């Protein structure tokens, strides 16, 4: 198996936008052929609501906002900067997103849909342990991509202290979905306590996101794979 970092550098950031961990700079994102989810993943869902100019304008705003929010932070990105990057007028911008909170929510909802598609493709028709190994490999590959700044949801939560804020509601909803996915994998593996194992797997995923940004991304795939498998195997019932 090749180095995740070496392999990932062959592909530009714009082609690995399927998850919320990388700058989503285009509407046509696909996983490089040969990655764990390449045969399952398609372009992300349309970003515009409806057809015609309105849908295109909304998509351009979301594309620009997604790249800037991820690269520079939510608070570090002004509406004027997004308007300039999208190449639209202020009137068009505020017609689609009257408040910044609405735009951030739309950005995270889009990222959640993309991340879920990537996760589901990775675990599709795979046995539980293999599914975890494939997820770890994919996370490691994405961690090596240019512009990687960790998890978009963790980043957004760090900038939004109010747990009742609509932004945090989206973050919490996606994290519950992620927990439920891991719990389902753990249950299929036959562990004694799927909920506890799922919490451990989510924690390991979070740590990998931070480690991939602050530490050595080339080590994420192998380290995370070993940690995932150990978390599951230690909770399997003892053989009779």
Structure described in brief:
The protein contains ten helices and no strands.
Observed structural traits:
240 residues; Tetracycline Repressor, domain 2; 0% strand
Low-confidence stretches: 9-48
Number of helices: 10
Radius of gyration: 18 Å
User: What summary fits the major beta sheet?
Assistant: none
Total domains, how many?
A: 1
Secondary-structure-based class equals mainly alpha
Helical proportion, percent range? 55-70%
Encode the helix/strand succession as letters: HHHHHHHHHH
The general outline is elongated
Distance between the termini: 36 Å
CATH architecture: Orthogonal Bundle
The CATH homologous superfamily name equals: Tetracycline Repressor, domain 2
Average predicted confidence as pLDDT? 82
Question: Would you state the CATH class?
Answer: Mainly Alpha
What fraction strand?
A: under 5%
> What is the CATH topology descriptor?
Tetracycline Repressor, domain 2
């Amino acid at each position: 198996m090749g180095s995740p970092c070496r392999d990932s550098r062959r592909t530009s950031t714009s082609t690995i936008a399927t998850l919320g961990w990388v700058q989503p700079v285009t509407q046509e994102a696909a996983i490089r052929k040969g990655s764990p989810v390449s045969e399952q993943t398609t372009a992300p869902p349309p970003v515009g609501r409806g057809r015609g100019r309105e849908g295109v304008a909304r998509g351009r705003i979301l594309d620009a906002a997604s790249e800037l929010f991820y690269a520079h932070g939510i608070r570090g990105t002004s509406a004027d900067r997004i308007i300039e990057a999208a190449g639209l007028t202020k009137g068009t911008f505020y017609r689609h997103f009257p408040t910044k909170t609405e735009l951030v929510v739309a950005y995270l909802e889009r990222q959640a849909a993309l991340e879920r598609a990537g996760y589901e493709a990775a675990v599709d028709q795979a046995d539980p342990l293999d599914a975890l190994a494939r997820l770890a490999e994919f996370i490691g590959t994405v961690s090596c991509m240019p512009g990687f700044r960790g998890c978009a949801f963790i980043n957004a939560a760090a900038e939004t202290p109010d747990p009742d804020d609509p932004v945090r509601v989206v973050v919490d909803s996606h994290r519950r979905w992620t927990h439920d996915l891991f719990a389902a994998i753990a249950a299929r593996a036959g562990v004694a306590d799927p909920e506890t194992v799922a919490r451990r797997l989510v924690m390991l995923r979070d740590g990998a996101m931070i480690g991939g940004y602050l530490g050595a991304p080339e080590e994420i795939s192998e380290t995370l794979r070993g940690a995932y498998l150990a978390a599951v195997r230690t909770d399997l019932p003892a053989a009779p």
